[in-house]
């Protein structure tokens, strides 16, 4: 493990939200800016945005804008990241793959197998996005975790909460063990970006 100076962390994620909810004119993006501005006052510190969004974009219906086609998902992510880099030119952005969920996921929103396939289709869109930023913003935008998706696909019975939905018991949200595993996956990816 590495010994880093004090870190300040803010979780600006909101359950049930999509990339549309975090576009530059959206209310949630304004909240991200407010928090980031308070962190950015200390220019000696490194500002890192760790982004994992896409689960709700992939839904068949329910969340804002869903279903979000893979190309549109990439464009939405680009708008978010471009805006962050314009406001915080020294920042680093780490983009993680969205995590797995069961193909019968159906609560207030409908995800199912179609959504599960769409979330996998977001992965090459993230890869394309990162490759483009390597040219336009070298050393500022990094691919984050790519392993948690498959980890949860294999370990959902021990690492996810069973939830009762319209189509039986589904698995969408990590439990405490899953939270710890996900945190470790993300931390490793963020440390890689810091180096």
Folded structure, characterized:
This protein is an alpha/beta fold and 195 residues long. Helix content is 45%, strand content 12%. The protein contains five helices and five strands. The protein has helices at residues 27-40, 70-87, 112-136, 148-159, 176-194; strands at residues 48-51, 92-95, 141-143, 160-165, 168-174. β4 and β5 (168-174) form a beta hairpin. The protein is globular, with a radius of gyration of 17 Å. It starts with 26 loop residues before the first helix and ends with a helix. The mean pLDDT is 93.
What is the distance, rounded to the nearest whole angstrom, between the alpha carbons of the first and last residues? Answer: 13 Å
Number of β-strand runs: 5
Main sheet specs: 3 strands, parallel
User: What's the order of the H and E elements?
Assistant: HEHEHEHEEH
Ranges where pLDDT stays below 50 over 5 or more residues in a row are none
**Structural class assignment:** alpha/beta
Please report which band the strand proportion falls in: under 5%, 5-15%, 15-25%, 25-35%, 35-45% or over 45%: 5-15%
Strands of the widest sheet, in order across it, are 1-2-3
Quaternary state of this entry equals single chain
Average pLDDT value?
A: 93
Rg calculated over all Cα atoms: 17 Å
The DSSP helix count reads 5
Give a brief rundown of this model:
The chain is of the alpha/beta class and 195 residues long. It is built from five helices and five strands.
């Amino acid at each position: 493990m590495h010994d880093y100076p004090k870190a300040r962390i803010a979780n600006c994620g909101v359950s049930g939200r999509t990339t549309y909810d975090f576009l530059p004119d959206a209310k949630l993006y304004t909240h991200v800016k407010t928090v980031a501005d308070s962190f950015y006052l200390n220019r000696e510190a490194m500002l890192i945005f760790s982004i994992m969004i896409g689960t709700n974009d992939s839904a068949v219906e329910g969340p804002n804008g869903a279903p979000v086609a893979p190309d549109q998902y990439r464009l939405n992510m680009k708008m978010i990241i471009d805006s962050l880099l314009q406001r915080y030119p020294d920042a680093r952005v780490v983009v993680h793959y969205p995590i797995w969920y069961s193909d019968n996921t159906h609560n207030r929103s409908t995800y199912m197998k179609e959504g599960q396939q769409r979330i996998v289709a977001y992965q090459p869109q993230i890869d394309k996005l990162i490759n483009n930023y390597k040219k336009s913003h070298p050393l500022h935008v990094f691919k984050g975790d790519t392993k948690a998706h498959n980890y949860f696909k294999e370990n959902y019975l021990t690492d996810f909460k069973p939830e009762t939905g319209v189509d039986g018991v589904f698995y969408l949200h990590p439990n405490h063990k899953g939270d710890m595993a996900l945190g470790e996956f993300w931390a490793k990816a963020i440390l890689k970006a810091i180096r």
